[in-house]
Specification:
The complex is a heterodimer of chains A (309) and B (311). Chain A is 68% helix and 0% strand. Chain A is globular and about 75 Å long. Chain B is an all-alpha fold and 311 residues long. Chain B has a two-stranded antiparallel ribbon with strand order 1-2. Chain B folds into 2 domains: 117 residues, no CATH class; 146 residues, MetI-like fold. The chains are: A mainly alpha (309), B mainly alpha (311). Chain A: Its main location: membrane. Chain A: It is found in: Cell membrane. Chain A: Pfam families: BPD_transp_1 (PF00528). Chain A: Belongs to the binding-protein-dependent transport system permease family.
Chain lengths: 309, 311
C-alpha cells in the first residue's frame, strides 16, 4: 500500500494546496485503492457508535420482536429521555462538574507554577523535580491505590467539606488525587513550552523591577495560552472520563461522577441494551463536544507531551 | 528548540538566580514546593508504602500498630496458591502483545497513509481518532452492546441469538479477546495521532532528496522516515506498556474482572474494596505492577532528560 514510484510530472493540476513535491503523488489506481481502504476502515470505525445510536433510537419492544439488526418499528428519543430522567443523570453530571472543574483549574495552576520554576530558572534539582512529576503521572493508578485508600481513610476533613468526615469518600479527596496525578503531565508539557519563550522577556521584566510572581503571572502565563488551551481540553477529557478513582475512592454511589455512576445504574435502571446505549451516548456527549469542537487542542495536547515541545 | 538550556551539574548558576530577593525566593519555593508536596504525598508516598506494606499482613481495619510483618510470604502466596494470579498475568501479557502487534503497527500504517497528500485526509483522521476521546468505561458499555449474547450486534448479525448462542462475554476463553478488540479500537487512533505528529516533524527535504535519488516510497520510509521516528517509537512503546498495565475500566464494567477477564489491576482493587480487605496482599500485587511499570518508565525518562541536559 506504500506509494510506489514518484511521478511529479503526473501530479494532477487540481491540487491548489501548497504542495511540497517531496511526497510524490501516487498514480491514480493506487490512490483509489488507498481511498477505498481508508473509507472502509473509517466505516468499520464508526460502526460501534452508529449502532449504539441506532439501537438507542428504538424502543425495546421493537428490537425484542424484530431483532437488533432490523429496520422498522418506531424510532424516537424515548430511551434518551427515560435514561435522563429515571437514572437522574443531571444529578450525576453535576457531580462530574463539581469534580472536574476544580481539579482542572488546580492542575493547570499548580503545573504552570512548577513548569515556570523549572523552565525559567537553573536550579540543580530541576531535572529531578521534573522527573518526579513525569514518572508519577506514568505510574498505573493501581500501583498506588492501596496505601492511598488507607491514607484517605485516616485523614479527617470537617463536615462542611465532606459529609463522610474524611478524605475518603469525599469530593476534595477525588479532586486532590486528580490534581496530584495530572500535574505531572501538564508540568512536563508546559515546561517544554516555556523553555521556548526567549529568556530576554523575563529578563526585561526583571530589569523593570518585576517580582518573580509578576514575571510568572503577567509575562509568561499569558504567552502560554495555546498550551493551556490544549492541556485544558485534554485534562478535561481525562478527568471527566475517570472511572477508577471514582469507583474506589467514592463509595457513596450518589456522589459519583457520571462516568463511574453509569456502572451502578446498569442493572438498576438500564435493564436492556437500548437504554444502555442511550445512557452511554448521553454520557459521551461532553467528550463528543471535545471531539467536534476542540479536536485540534486535544490532539496538540497529546502530541506536545509526546514530541517534547 | 530550547533556548534556555538547563545548567549541567557543576556549572555556576547564572546571574539571574543570584539577583533573586528574599521574597522572590520564598515565592519560588512555594511555587515549586506546594505541587511537589502534593505529588509526593499522594503519589510517591503511597508508591513507597505499597512496597513497604507488601511485606506485611494487615486487614486494614485495626490501627497501624496492628500490622504484622511477614517478610516475603505475600509474594510466596501470590506465586504459589493464588488462583487468580496466573490468569491475570497471562491476560496482561496477552493485552500487551495484542497492543503491540495490532494498534501500534496499524496506527503507524494509517499515519503514513494519511500523511500523504490525499483528499479527505482530515476527515479520515478525525473518524479514526473518534474513539480516543471516549472513556474506557464507556467502551466497556459499547462492548456489551456489540457482544452481549442475545441483545448484541454480532450474534444478531450472524443469527446466533437462539439455540446455539455464542456467549462472547461469558465464555472465559472468548471474552478477553472481545474486550481487547474494543480496546484496540481506541488505542489505534491514539497511536495514529502520535505517529502523525512524528511524521510531520520529519524533514521534507530529506524525503525530497531521497526521491530525487530515485528511492521509491518503501525505501524512503525504510531509510528516511523510520529512523527519524525513533523518539516517537519510544513514546508509543511506553504508551503501549502503560496502557496495557492500566487496563481496568472495560473489564470492570463488564463483569468486575472475573471469569476470564482477570487483570493485575483488578486483583489489586479487589483486595481493597472487595469483601476481604487485605492491604498487605494487595500491596504485594501493586508492587509487582509498580516494578514492571518502572522498568519501562525509568529508562524512558532517563533517555528523555539526558537529551535535555546536554548543552
Amino acid at each position: 500500500m506504500t506509494a510506489p514510484g514518484t511521478l511529479p510530472a503526473a501530479a494532477p493540476a487540481r491540487r491548489s494546496r501548497k504542495a511540497d513535491r517531496a511526497r510524490g503523488d501516487s498514480p491514480a489506481p493506487a490512490r483509489i485503492a488507498l481511498h477505498i481502504f481508508l473509507a472502509g476502515t473509517c466505516l468499520v470505525w464508526l460502526v460501534p457508535l452508529l449502532y449504539a445510536f441506532y439501537t438507542a433510537l428504538r424502543p425495546y419492544a421493537d428490537t425484542a420482536r424484530r431483532g437488533y439488526v432490523s429496520v422498522g418499528g418506531h424510532y424516537g428519543t424515548g430511551n434518551f429521555s427515560a435514561a435522563w430522567v429515571q437514572a437522574q443523570l443531571p444529578h450525576y453530571f453535576w457531580n462530574s462538574v463539581l469534580i472536574t472543574v476544580p481539579a482542572l483549574v488546580l492542575t493547570l495552576w499548580l503545573a504552570s507554577m512548577v513548569a515556570f520554576v523549572v523552565a525559567r530558572f537553573r536550579f540543580r534539582i530541576n531535572i529531578a523535580l521534573l522527573m518526579l512529576f513525569t514518572a508519577g503521572n506514568l505510574l498505573p493508578q493501581q500501583a498506588i491505590v492501596t496505601p492511598l485508600f488507607k491514607l484517605y481513610q485516616l485523614v479527617p476533613l470537617p463536615q462542611w467539606l465532606a459529609a463522610s468526615g474524611k478524605l475518603d469518600d469525599s469530593f476534595p479527596g477525588l479532586i486532590l488525587i486528580h490534581v496530584a496525578f495530572q500535574t505531572g503531565f501538564c508540568a512536563f508539557v508546559m515546561s517544554n513550552y516555556m523553555r521556548t519563550i526567549p529568556a530576554e522577556l523575563g529578563e526585561a521584566a526583571v530589569m523593570d523591577g518585576a517580582s518573580v510572581w509578576r514575571q510568572y503571572w503577567q509575562v509568561i502565563l499569558p504567552l502560554c495560552r495555546p498550551v493551556l488551551a490544549a492541556l485544558a481540553t485534554l485534562e478535561f477529557t481525562w478527568i471527566y472520563n475517570d472511572f477508577f478513582w471514582a469507583t474506589v475512592l467514592m463509595q457513596t454511589g450518589a456522589n459519583r461522577p457520571v462516568t463511574a455512576a453509569l456502572n451502578n445504574l446498569t442493572g438498576e435502571f438500564f435493564v436492556n441494551n437500548n437504554l444502555i446505549a442511550a445512557a452511554a451516548l448521553i454520557v459521551a456527549i461532553p467528550t463528543l463536544v471535545v471531539f467536534f469542537a476542540l479536536q485540534r487542542q486535544f490532539v496538540s495536547g497529546l502530541t506536545l507531551g509526546a514530541n517534547k515541545g | 528548540m530550547t533556548e534556555v538550556e538547563l545548567a549541567p551539574r557543576g556549572t555556576p548558576k547564572r546571574r539571574r538566580t543570584r539577583r533573586l530577593s528574599g521574597w522572590d525566593r520564598v515565592v519560588i519555593t512555594l511555587m515549586a514546593g506546594v505541587p511537589t508536596l502534593l505529588t509526593v504525598a499522594l503519589v510517591w508516598l503511597p508508591a513507597l508504602a505499597s512496597v513497604g506494606l507488601s511485606f506485611s499482613s494487615w486487614s486494614g481495619y485495626g490501627s497501624v500498630s496492628s500490622i504484622q510483618w511477614v517478610g516475603l510470604e505475600n509474594y510466596k502466596n501470590i506465586f504459589t496458591i493464588y488462583p487468580e494470579f496466573p490468569p491475570a498475568i497471562e491476560h496482561n501479557l496477552e493485552w500487551l502483545a495484542v497492543f503491540f502487534c495490532l494498534p501500534a503497527p496499524f496506527g503507524l500504517f494509517l499515519a503514513v497513509q494519511l500523511d500523504k497528500r490525499i483528499r479527505f485526509s482530515r476527515l479520515y483522521q478525525s473518524i479514526l481518532f473518534l474513539p480516543v476521546v471516549l472513556s474506557l468505561a464507556l467502551i466497556g458499555f459499547m462492548t456489551e452492546l456489540i457482544f452481549s449474547p442475545t441483545q448484541g450486534l454480532i450474534n444478531n448479525l450472524t443469527g446466533h441469538t437462539h439455540g446455539h448462542v455464542t456467549d462472547w462475554l461469558g465464555n472465559p476463553h472468548l471474552n478477553i479477546w472481545a474486550v481487547m478488540l474494543m480496546a484496540c479500537w481506541r488505542q489505534t487512533g491514539y497511536v495514529m495521532v502520535l505517529f502523525l505528529a512524528g511524521l510531520k516533524s520529519v524533514d521534507p527535504s530529506l524525503k525530497e532528496a531521497a526521491s530525487l535519488d530515485g528511492a521509491n516510497g518503501r525505501q524512503i520510509f525504510r531509510h528516511v522516515t523510520w529512523p527519524s521516528l525513533r523518539p516517537i517509537n519510544v513514546v508509543v512503546l511506553v504508551v503501549t506498556v502503560i496502557e496495557s498495565l492500566r487496563a481496568f475500566d472495560i473489564v470492570y464494567v463488564i463483569n468486575k474482572g472475573t471469569d476470564g477477564l482477570e487483570l493485575l489491576s483488578v486483583l489489586v482493587t479487589d483486595n481493597i474494596i472487595g469483601e476481604a480487605s487485605r492491604i498487605g496482599f494487595g500491596s504485594a500485587l501493586a508492587t509487582i505492577l509498580l516494578v514492571i511499570s518502572l522498568a519501562f518508565i525509568v529508562p524512558y525518562l532517563v533517555s528523555v532528560f539526558r537529551k535535555d541536559s546536554r548543552p
